[in-house]
Amino acid sequence: MDDVRASFHSGKNGLGLFAQLVSELSSSTKTNDKLQSLVDYFATAPDEDKVWVIAIFSGRRPRRAVSFSLLREWCAEITQYPHWLLDECYHTVGDLAETLALLLPETKQQNQINKNLSHYLETFISIEKQDVSVRKKFIIDSWNQMNRDERFVFNKLITGAFRIGVSQKTIVNALSKIVDLSSSIIAHRISGNWDPVTTSFEDLLSESASVTDFSKPYPFYLAYALEEEPENLGEPNEWQAEWKWDGIRGQMIKRNNELFVWSRGEELMPDKFPEYFILKDLLPEGVVIDGEIIPAVGRKPLPFSILQTRIGRKNISRKQLQDAPICFFAYDLLEYNSEDIRGFPLHERRKKLEEIILPIKNNSIQISEIINFNSWSELAALRKTSREMNSEGIMLKRKNSDYKVGRKRGDWWKWKIDPLTIDCVMIYAQKGSGRRSNLYTDYTFAVKDGDKLIAFTKAYSGLTDKEFAEIDNFVKRNSIEKFGPVRTVKPELVFEIAFEGIAASNRHKSGVALRFPRMSRWRKDKTVDEINTIEDLKTMLEMYGK
Amino acid sequence: MDNLISFTDKGLYCAQGNFYIDPWKAVDKAIITHGHGDHARFGNKNYLCHTDTKPILQLRLGNNNYETVKWNEAIYINGVKVSLHPAGHIIGSSQIRLEYNNEVWVVSGDYKTKDDGLSGKFEPIKCNVFITESTFGLPIYKWKPQQEIYDNIINWINKNKENGKTSVLLAYSLGKAQRVLQAIKETTQTIYAHGAVFNMQQALINAGFNLTPVVRITPDTPKELLKASVVIAPPSADGTSWMKKFQPHSVGVCSGWMQVRGNARRRNVDAGFALSDHADWDGLIQTVKETGAEKIFVTHGFQSAFSRYCYEQNIAIAAEVKTQFEASPDLSEGEEFEGS
């Protein structure tokens, strides 16, 4: 990474420029620096590459065109390193694309060829269906033209594993400095269905461009967690309160007499949610509704784990349709009579939303109900009942607020309930990936089961870097056995695990699966004898998981 | 016949000569490869080291009974012929060669095969048994030419200057700091330093090394002077309130561990420069081959992978050894030994 960070925009172009952008983004710690890197990139990169970068950063990464195991195979062939050594390297680096980039022999400067990012991606798409020998030749030839950093991004792209920590908001802000359009228009233009192979930068972002894509959703408005007391928000009557539902945030769009359903980032396959078919006939023309995709029986939401069992399936069985019917909980109205009404105040949008939803008597859609309250203390008491409602807490929305783009402070807040917690002991440790590569940061935890310990969850987050370093040290000194990358650790360190939900699971030996488990505290004050038991978990399952 | 060197709970021990090499517990006689804290520890009665290592030990361990030798100068300890040879790791760093009954053992200490112009040029020594470090003993660690890395550091400094930012380079105060300072001395008139770096640099200058002087940062150093300047500090200074003096700044780390992106990201640094004072994979393999050793012992680092590879590829019969030398994936490539 050093050369990229340091050489800045020194005459690089094509893939090299992109690799440099990726390096800058992943090592800069401040949003402003990231923004500047993106602005610099968009100001210098060729148009055909810009389109791809927008596509990649807005979740349209290219499909995986080659498996990691094939790449690994070819790398072993080129380097002549034994497989176990490649594995060892991978466990140290924590990222296979990077491992391969580091292992392949460096291409001499004079042999490096600087081609466009679009060249590699589009060639790749064009040979996607061809014989593996064709793809192999293309990949090895490409490797031979690239330096280490270029290979890294190339490997990431062709394996469909590309992720980078830049919010859509930052991309939009960077673009708004390059093209003469407002941020909200840019955000809308780059969402929806478009293909970077056939769309030019001009098509996407020129002032005059008006490609009609009826399926295009609006960017979601996202809330921050409320960290202070609600009293600080002012008068209760300025606020609308709703339950915070735990499903998939979605947009339902009816335009041109067609129905589209979007989650954040992708259009959802209609065949996965057959319950919604009927809404095409029940909803008026020209509306976009923001809401939550959630299973519900008799209008009462079911736990998220039930939705999860459905999302994964290719085909939905009749039993699933019966046991976990999907409903759409409508939160907000963004488009009405084919007109963008995001600038209207919430109370007006809500009124129109009620006019549309309330007359529809169908189990596949319902309005997210408003919670009546007169004082903050009254609402606080109601919030305590959230878990019984299968809700995660309360949403607070300012009644006169417009519908904003992305995560913004001020008008929308999520006021979540405290998580469930359990004390347990660490029994396995594994090295992390990405910024935690080479440190033991991925742990498995156990509770007591009689005299024995039984594993019940993994957790990776919640501790400070300092604590991770301390535990890493403990793991290295207290390993009992080593199974590949996993170490069995002396059961000694006790942690409090916080989680949002619990569900029965027959895939886990403990019989339970937790939602969003993380380490909330390292209980240095507790010993293994004082941890919770499998019975405690089962009691929680009985109370909250059914 | 007994092994010339055995691995004991106090460290590497030569029974015939009754001395230790880089022991981690106090002993009567210790031969020291170099001045880093995990190799040169307190409390030994007698120290034997290279002439250039002595001022470093004096600074860090105080006054002790030090005996010094030059490279290639043989001495005899109870019949064991002992000589020191350049290891190229830091100033004074040496490999220890032992010869007894026509058998030659070499302890590498820490080493780097590329000449940094300060530490002496590493030379592989023919031997029967070679005890080698393996800090970077995986093939993902292959260093770029040092001039290329220096150019990158200099470009980064210039870019920061343009943006009005202070360049804070984190480098271990003994070894890396001297090397980086030599590389960047032309970029700016004055280079500022943390007390730990200053003390070491000054001690070495006083001992007669021709090094770039640095200016110590004290609470009285005016903030304006430091604006857009270049500062060298040990890795331990990162994240402390001491760094606040330099806002706005950009932090660069010079360490072999920066080869892997995750390490740089974990530290939240702005720039990572994979500049190491250890041999890379190719350097380690090459060295083992050039020593001609039929048997090697692999210490601190990726010892299990490196010894397995050497054995499988018929490079040498290899065994891994546990020591208390540090090869943790820390940025310092050695123990932090200094105070402030």
* Mass-distribution shape of chain A: globular
Low-confidence stretches of chain A: 1-10
Q: How many helices of chain A in DSSP terms?
A: 20
Structural classification of chain B: alpha/beta
**Unreliable runs of chain B, pLDDT <50, ≥5 residues?**
328-340
For the sheet with most strands of chain B, the description reads:
7 strands, mixed
CATH architecture label of the largest domain in chain A: 2-Layer Sandwich
In which order are the strands of the major sheet of chain B placed?
Answer: 7-8-9-10-11-18-19
Q: What share of the residues of chain A lie within helices? A: 25-40%
| Rg from Cα of chain B | 20 Å
Could you tell me the CATH topology label of the largest domain in chain A: D-amino Acid Aminotransferase, Chain A, domain 1
The radius of gyration of chain A is 26 Å
User: How many angstroms does the end-to-end distance of chain B come to?
Assistant: 49 Å
CATH architecture of the largest domain in chain B: 4-Layer Sandwich
Counting H and I runs of at least 4 residues, what is the number of helices of chain B? 8
Please give the largest β-sheet of chain A.
7 strands, mixed
Name of the CATH class of the largest domain in chain A: Alpha Beta
Which band does the percent of strand residues of chain B land in?
Answer: 25-35%
